[in-house]
Iron complex transport system ATP-binding protein (Tunturiibacter empetritectus), 263 residues
Amino acid sequence: MQGNLVEPFLHLAHVNVARGENVVLHDINLSVNAGEHIAILGPNGCGKSTLIKTITCECYPVVHPEMKVRIFGRERWDLTELKKRLGVVSAELPGKQTLKTSGRDAVITGFFSSSTLWPNLLVTDSMRVHAEVVLRQIDAVGFAEKLVGEMSAGQQRRIMIGRALVGSAGMLLLDEPSNALDLAAQAELRGLMRRLAQQGTGIMLITHHIADIPPEIDRILMMREGRIVADGSKAELLTAERLSDLFKTEVQLSERDGFYHAW
């Protein structure tokens, strides 16, 4: 590398992905640097979640000579190792075993990419110390002993973000993180994303809620029908005209304190 160029966290070139018989991602070309903040917008069914599953190697691209997938500078990964380095927070509720786990232990499971702390897993003192740092970082110390299944949706989402943070290499992938959250929990989530971004954590946010995009995110990617249709700055792409075209409906837009709101 030359000068101050940063090795991309992610590099995709000419990536097509099929689900069953249907190709759902078409010729995806995308580079994201480590520590970068980016939001990916698009209507339901546009391929946003499939893109995340491609990054986490849950979906595999169609193989052809021009296709490239490089994550953290590598083309091949042991999936268990990759899961430990990718901080992924999905819109889905925690699994059954995680619901029976305390918040503190659920955060620690991020070191092992496991659903709970199974008896065969060795938790070191350094892991516990780091987990306490993360619990403070996500403002979850007050309910760390509570079972995840007894938490509010907002508390669960914070614990899942903490779980993602302990093992990740400074990149969080958030897939529709405000789903099922009430207004207060949405505000808390957005505040947490702002703090993490300001502290240097890279954020890749998948959403169709414009209000979820914190001011610290300036790069916007737009997807429609499995294709990237725009990639640029917030000033360029977060306009009523561009959003109306993306979502195929008339959109009004306003901005307040760095957050955009659409209706």
